[in-house]
Write a structure and sequence with these properties.
The complex is a heterodimer of chains A (415) and B (227).
Chain A: H1 2-16, H2 18-54, E1 60-65, H3 95-102, E2 110-125, E3 128-137, H4 140-144, E4 149-152, H5 157-162, E5 166-169, H6 171-178, E6 187-190, E7 193-201, E8 216-219, H7 220-226, E9 234-239, H8 245-259, E10 270-274, H9 275-318, H10 320-328, H11 333-370, H12 378-404, H13 408-413
Parallel strand pairs in A: 3-8, 5-7
Antiparallel strand pairs in A: 1-9, 1-10, 2-3, 2-9, 4-7, 5-8, 6-7
Chain B: E1 3-16, E2 19-32, E3 36-40, H1 47-54, E4 62-67, E5 70-71, H2 77-87, E6 88-91, H3 103-108, H4 119-129, H5 145-157, E7 163-167, H6 175-190, E8 194-199, H7 202-205, E9 210-215, E10 218-224
Parallel strand pairs in B: 3-8, 3-9, 6-7, 7-8
Antiparallel strand pairs in B: 1-2, 1-4, 4-5, 9-10
The chains are: A alpha+beta (415), B alpha/beta (227).
Chain lengths: 415, 227
C-alpha cells in the first residue's frame, strides 16, 4: 500500500523537474546503450563467424602436422621461408597415413579422405604475373568441399595412379589466366612441368579460410614430384555422420600414432581438429572480446551512476524543508529512505530502458558500416534492466540515507 | 480534570561544542483535553523547543512526557512518527507546503504515512471548510499567504488529530488574515480538538483559554482567560 504511494511521490518529484531528470539519466542511457550495442554486436559477429566455420562442414575433420600448441611448430631454428604456411619440409603426414584412413574396413565411419600438398606458383596473365595457390589433392577432396565441374571434368583415381600432369581450377582463376578464351586443353607450366587444364569448377562458397574459386588443383602424386615434397600439409576427412565425429577423432589418432610408431599420445606429431573444435575456440575468443568491450562500456555506467548520486545529493539538499515536513506529518526514517531510493531506481530504470533503445540503434548503425547483424537477446535486455536498477540502488543509497537522517527540526528551519 | 498531555521535569540541553545550552529547565506542564492553550515568550525563551518536544519532533534530555496517559519519552523513530501522524496536526509560520503540488496533493500528504478512510473526499471537505473550495487543483505556489496557511490547516486536520500544534501561524500574515486564521482555529477548538498555539503577539494569545509564559527556558506564569 504505502510503497505505491511512495512511488507516486517519487514520480511526481521526477516529473516536477523533467529537464534535470533527463540530463541526470543521460549517463545511464549512454552506459546501457553502449553495453547493449556492443554485446549484441559481439553476438552478431560470433554467429557470422560460426556460420563461416560451419560452412566447412560439421562432419569434416582436419589433420595437421605437428602438435598445434606443442614445441615442434615453434622450432626457432626454422627460417620464416621454411615455415611458410604449415611447414613444407617437416610434415609428418604421409601417403601411407592417408591410405590407412581410406581403408573402409579399418575406418567404416570415414566417407572421404584426401591429403593436401600445399604450394603455389606464378603464371603470366594479361595484367601481369600472378601468384596463386596450387594444391595437390585426391578426388575425394572435391567431394569433401562440394566442388563440381562447370566445364570439362575433374581428375580421378586413375590420374592419381598415373601421376598425370592434369589440372582443375576455380572459375575466377580461369577468368584471370585465360579471359574469355576456353581454358580446357591449355597447358600451364608449374615449376618446369606442363600441366594440362581439364576442368573448371562451378563457383564455390568461400569457407572463410580459403577461396576455392581462386586456386588450382593437381593430383597429389604429381604435386609430390613437381614440388619435391612427398608429405601432406593437411589430411582432410569427412565422417559419415556428425555423431561419430568425436569417436572418429580418437580412431584417427590411434591409426596415425601406430603409423608413426608413437605410443605416448602427448608426443603425437599431428593434430586432429573438427569444425566443432574451431567453433569453440572462436567462441571463446569472441566471448572474451565481447566481455572486454562490455566491461569498458560498464565504466561509463559507473560514471553515469556517480552522476545520479551527485544530482540526488543536490536534490536532497534542495528538498531539506520538504523532508522535514514529511517527517513532521508522520514519515518514518525508512519512508524517506525508500522514497529517495525509489526515485533513484526509477531514474536509472528509465535511463536503462532508453539505453536499450539507444543500444539497438547503435547496433543498427554498426550493421550498416560493419556488415554484421547485431543480435539483441531477451537476456541482454533483462540484464540491462537489472543492472540499471542496481546502479540506481547502489548510487541512491548514500543520498537517500542522507535524506532520511535529517533532523526534522533542522530540516524545517532550513532556508 | 483529564489531561491530554502531562510533562514532568522536562529539560532540554543542547551540546554546542564544549558548552551546554539549556533550552528548557525542569518544566512541568499539563494540557487539558479540548483547551486552547497559548505559549508565549520572547525569542530564545525556549518556546520553540517546548513546541518541538510537545510535537515529538525533538527528544527531551530529562523528564517524562505522557501523551494521553502513555509515556512517550522512550519511543523510537517509528513510534514517534506514527504518533505525529495520527495524534498531531502541525501548522508552521512558513506554511511549509510542497511546491509545484496542488492544494489537494498537499492536504493529502499525511495520508501517505497513515491510512484513513476515503482520504480524497475528506480532503476535499476540509479544503471547502477552510474556504478554498474552488482552489482544489491550484498549485500551492499560486496561492496568497493567507490561502497557503488555510491549506496547511486543512493538512493538519486530515488525519483527525487530537492536538493541533501551531508555531506562530500568523507570523507571516497581516492582521486581517491573522484574524481569519484565528477564527478557523477557534472553530476547530469548538469541534473538540486541543489547540496549542505559540506566539509572541498579545492580541493572538488573548483568544486562548490559558496562556503560559516562558522566559529563559522556565515557565514564569500560567494565566487563565478572564471571561
Amino acid at each position: 500500500m504505502r510503497i505505491w504511494l511512495l512511488i507516486g511521490q517519487s514520480l511526481k518529484a521526477i516529473f516536477a523537474n523533467k529537464g534535470r531528470s533527463l540530463l541526470t539519466i543521460l549517463g545511464i542511457v549512454i552506459g546501457i546503450g553502449s553495453i547493449i550495442g556492443l554485446v549484441s554486436l559481439g553476438a552478431g559477429v560470433r554467429v557470422s563467424i560460426s556460420d563461416r566455420i560451419l560452412a566447412l562442414g560439421a562432419t569434416n575433420l582436419t589433420i595437421l602436422p605437428g602438435a598445434v600448441a606443442g614445441a615442434q611448430s615453434l622450432d626457432p631454428t626454422r627460417t620464416p621461408s621454411q615455415t611458410r604456411g604449415f611447414t613444407l619440409s617437416t610434415s609428418t603426414l604421409t601417403e601411407k597415413d592417408m591410405l590407412s584412413l581410406a581403408d573402409r574396413k579399418q575406418h567404416p565411419h570415414i566417407k572421404y579422405v584426401s591429403g593436401e600438398i600445399t604450394s603455389s606458383t606464378v603464371a603470366e596473365t594479361k595484367t601481369g604475373d600472378k601468384r596463386f595457390p596450387v594444391l595437390g589433392v585426391s578426388p575425394d577432396y572435391f567431394a569433401i568441399n562440394s566442388l563440381t565441374a562447370r566445364q570439362g571434368r575433374l581428375f580421378t583415381q586413375n590420374h592419381i595412379d598415373q601421376k598425370s600432369p592434369v589440372l582443375v581450377m576455380g572459375n575466377e582463376l580461369a577468368k584471370e589466366l585465360y579471359g574469355n578464351e576456353n581454358p580446357i586443353g591449355n597447358t600451364l607450366e608449374i615449376e618446369g612441368t606442363g600441366y594440362r587444364v581439364i576442368g573448371i569448377f562451378n563457383p564455390a562458397d568461400e569457407t572463410g579460410l580459403a577461396n576455392p574459386n581462386n586456386q588450382a588443383y593437381i593430383p597429389y602424386t604429381a604435386a609430390a614430384e613437381t614440388f619435391k615434397s612427398p608429405n601432406f600439409n593437411f589430411i582432410y576427412v569427412q565422417a559419415t555422420d556428425e555423431d561419430v565425429v568425436p569417436a572418429l577423432k580418437r580412431e584417427i589418432r590411434k591409426t596415425l600414432m601406430k603409423n608413426h610408431k608413437i605410443t605416448n599420445s602427448s608426443l603425437a606429431d599431428f593434430t586432429v581438429i573438427s569444425s566443432g573444435d574451431v567453433l569453440s575456440a572462436v567462441d571463446s575468443i569472441t566471448n572474451m572480446l565481447t566481455s572486454l568491450l562490455a566491461g569498458i562500456a560498464a565504466i561509463s555506467l559507473l560514471v553515469g551512476g556517480i552522476g545520479i548520486m551527485n544530482i540526488m545529493l543536490v536534490s536532497v539538499s534542495e528538498r531539506t524543508r520538504e523532508i522535514g515536513l514529511r517527517k513532521a506529518v508522520g514519515a518514518r526514517t525508512v519512508d524517506i529512505l525508500n522514497q529517495f531510493l525509489i526515485e533513484a531506481v526509477l531514474l536509472t530504470l528509465t535511463g536503462g530502458i532508453l539505453g536499450i533503445g539507444f543500444g539497438i540503434l547503435i547496433g543498427e548503425i554498426s550493421e550498416v558500416y560493419l556488415g554484421f547483424t547485431p543480435i539483441v537477446t531477451s537476456s541482454t535486455i533483462v540484464l540491462a534492466v537489472g543492472v540499471s536498477s542496481l546502479v540506481g540502488l547502489i548510487f541512491g543509497v548514500y543520498p537517500a540515507m542522507k535524506a532520511s537522517r535529517l533532523d526534522p527540526i533542522n530540516a524545517l528551519r532550513y532556508e | 480534570m483529564e489531561y491530554i498531555i502531562e510533562m514532568k521535569g522536562i529539560s532540554k540541553i543542547y551540546k554546542t561544542g564544549d558548552e551546554d545550552t539549556v533550552a528548557l529547565k525542569d518544566v512541568d506542564l499539563e494540557v487539558r483535553r479540548g483547551e486552547f492553550l497559548a505559549i508565549m515568550g520572547p525569542s530564545g525563551s525556549g518556546k520553540s523547543t517546548l513546541m518541538h518536544i510537545l510535537g515529538l519532533l525533538d527528544r527531551l534530555t530529562t523528564g517524562r512526557y505522557f501523551l494521553e496517559g502513555r509515556d512517550v519519552s522512550k519511543l523510537r523513530d517509528g513510534g514517534l512518527a506514527g504518533l505525529r501522524n495520527r495524534r498531531f496536526g502541525f501548522v508552521f509560520q512558513q506554511f511549509n507546503l510542497l511546491p509545484r503540488t496542488s492544494v489537494l496533493g498537499n492536504v493529502l500528504l499525511p495520508t501517505i504515512y497513515g491510512r484513513i478512510k476515503n482520504p480524497r473526499s475528506r480532503a476535499i471537505k476540509l479544503i471547502e471548510e477552510v474556504g478554498l473550495g474552488n482552489h482544489i487543483n491550484h498549485k500551492s505556489n499560486q496561492l496568497s499567504g493567507g490561502q497557503m496557511q488555510r491549506v496547511a490547516i486543512a493538512r493538519a486536520l486530515i488525519m483527525d488529530p487530537a492536538i493541533i500544534l501551531a508555531d506562530e501561524p500568523t507570523g507571516n500574515l497581516d492582521s486581517k488574515r491573522s484574524l481569519e486564521i484565528l477564527d478557523i482555529f477557534r472553530r476547530i477548538n469548538a469541534g473538540g480538538s486541543t489547540i496549542i498555539l505559540i506566539t509572541h503577539e498579545e492580541q493572538i494569545a488573548r483568544h486562548a483559554d490559558r496562556t503560559i509564559r516562558l522566559l529563559d527556558g522556565e515557565i514564569v506564569s500560567i494565566a487563565e482567560r478572564v471571561a
